[in-house]
């Protein structure tokens, strides 16, 4: 039995050329058994070639070897930098993302998802036991000591209302963070300020409420962070009042916050809250810590707060 079938036959004394041989291959079909399965290709009884599981070895594929336009409708497609899956897609096994990935469609993951890169998800459902309500997560959290300083020092120059601060170590600030500046020399007045500009990792600017020209030393008053996620630093802006500064800003200021405070060696509980003057922005959030008995604001050694959005 022939393994290659073709209707293109050479006549007696006909010259064989490469063009004619190419034409024969184009118009040929394969019988079952034409190619040994161990080679990675199989031929069905109808003469169709198919690739068995494991038949494609990625190490043998050259760049551009697979044309995404030739993949059947509804299946995955990919370009040099992205993979598009049908919408919706269900991943029933464990998924691992080792590079940055963005999911813009609906995705259901019933296995364990591990991401070592940045994973941006549009509408996602991750093994919800019951119900169809969407899942929202904690965007930032922090556990800090409101009584222990983690200050950094530096120098400043005040020109009119602009104060330029140079810190002794990296300040970790972004525009919109709130800092408390304790001017230890010169004539500038202490206070809480919003960062208006970042010049470098050790230089930033704020706007002072009054105009003047002076310079000297300055301390950024901060509290000790025990653990955190997406929190760059915590500034103390008054007794029992703190500004939590986010490493990466939120999309807006319409997030929720919750927390509690604990008094060491005391039976009096604490609460985390705010009032009409509490500032909330995409970059920073003020929180107040008070005595649950009389409402007085005070510094405590354990403050936990999280931000949901």
Report on the structure:
The protein folds into 4 domains: 4-57, no CATH class; 83-131, no CATH class; 136-147 and 226-309, no CATH class; 152-220, Elongation Factor Tu (Ef-tu), domain 3 (Beta Barrel), CATH 2.40.30. The strands form 7 sheets. An 8-stranded antiparallel beta sheet has the order 17-12-23-20-21-22-19-18, with no helix packed on it. Strands 13, 14, 15 and 16 form a 4-stranded antiparallel beta sheet that branches. It has 309 residues and is mainly beta. It contains 1 helix and 23 strands. It has one helix at 18-26, and strands at 4-5, 29-30, 42-43, 49-50, 77-78, 83-84, 89-91, 95-97, 101-109, 113-115, 119-125, 138-149, 152-167, 178-183, 191-200, 203-220, 223-229, 231-238, 241-246, 256-262, 270-273, 284-291, 302-308. It is elongated. The model has no long low-confidence stretch (mean pLDDT 80). The longest helix has 9 residues, at 18-26. Strand 18 and strand 19 (241-246) form a beta hairpin. It is 3% helix and 47% strand.
Q: Reading side by side through the largest sheet, how are the strands ordered? A: 17-12-23-20-21-22-19-18
Structural class assignment: mainly beta
Overall, the morphology is elongated
Q: How far apart, in Å, are the first and last alpha carbons?
A: 69 Å
Strand segment count: 23
Compact summary:
This protein is mostly beta strands. It has one helix spanning about 20-25; strands at about 5, 30, 40-45, 50, 75-80, 85, 90, 95, 100-110, 115, 120-125, 140-150, 150-165, 180-185, 190-200, 205-220, 225-230, 230-240, 240-245, 255-260, 270-275, 285-290, 300-309. Strands 17-12-23-20-21-22-19-18 form an eight-stranded antiparallel beta sheet, with no helix packed on it. Strands 13, 14, 15 and 16 form a four-stranded antiparallel beta sheet that branches. It has a three-stranded parallel beta sheet with strand order 7-9-11, with no helix packed on it.
